[in-house]
Hints:
With about 220 residues, chain A is an alpha/beta fold. Chain A has helices at about 5-15, 15-35, 40-50, 55-60, 75-85, 100-110, 110-115, 145-150, 165-175, 200-215, and strands at about 40, 75, 90-95, 115-125, 135, 135-140, 155-160, 180-185, 195-200.
Amino acid sequence: MKNFTSPISYLKRVPDSTVRRLSLYLGFLEELEDSGEATVSSDVLARLGGTTSAQVRKDLSIFGSFGKRGLGYFVPELTTRLREILGLGRDWHVAIVGAGKIGLALAQYPGFREKGFHVSALYDASPAKVGTRLDSIPVRDVHRLASDAAKEHFDIGVIAVPADDAQFVADTMVAAGIKAIMNFAPAQITVPADVVTRTVNMGLEFEALSFALANLSK
Amino acid sequence: MKNFTSPISYLKRVPDSTVRRLSLYLGFLEELEDSGEATVSSDVLARLGGTTSAQVRKDLSIFGSFGKRGLGYFVPELTTRLREILGLGRDWHVAIVGAGKIGLALAQYPGFREKGFHVSALYDASPAKVGTRLDSIPVRDVHRLASDAAKEHFDIGVIAVPADDAQFVADTMVAAGIKAIMNFAPAQITVPADVVTRTVNMGLEFEALSFALANLSK
């Protein structure tokens, strides 16, 4: 019997800020690898990541023992391990709901596929869009999402619909067994504890800056 | 003499999560206003914002007394006040550094201007881009940023350059007196305490989902 408790508690031990830094380290390591660097010190990673070398060592120590005292980290080895840790070595199947501007842009973004995120299908409610194709990706009726998910096993659901529809789409994804949701809608979505969500909303972030400026200049 | 301490401590009392919800409430209120609704209850705002009515009342009470018992909030009044609170009633001058994909997309996005964010100039290091124009927005040499900022008073600086250049651009913005920075680079930037920054990075957010999935399925 699969134990669902332990991986979740393991996840909870790794703070969001650490995962974010792991992504940043990986980005720098890929550049170092491209330029043929064999090793890198925690000092250099810390400087690139805007943190301290103690923090770099702490972040990496969660996942095992890396690096050699005096030599630093081996670039190809650490790059490979970070890709594995971040789940970038495999293919994730992505279903995007909302074939609007954001949904279409994401489906066509080459960098997304390169990282292993494969858009299996786009879903929309508009009869004008359903049945069309974007490159090789079909645009399907959103009502098919649940039955398709059962057959095609989507790993990640992307919500790219207006705010009003976001929770309904999230509920449909959860019911379809999707465990990871990226929300681009300007709405807070509520999901069960075993589903992971991230929100990306440029508008909200700019309004936070605007709020800060308006209240600073009072 | 202007007192810079009190507005900053006032800001610190308002959590990020509250500001984010204020933006969400405003979005819903604008829709309600468009459909001619006169009043809205904290229950309805709570449901739309994925929170509780007690939280809605608490969020709004920070900024004064709104609403009438039994009637709820007056939609046009609360909409106007939230726009003011979020600093959306005025024009913010924005300088974007990096005339690549993200920088150009942002400069051309109509919704950005509608909210009061006016892109004054784009900056780039590439001689091929400097001197060109995007619609009416000039693309200028990044080395001019500091001297231009002194004359043109930019409110918000947008970092849309590769990770390696992000901190340098941030330092230039800070030295030029810019107090609010939006960072699209996949890099952590460090700024003084009186400068507000927000980061938007889709790649990092997707990698966080990937990390969660990889470790859940172990």
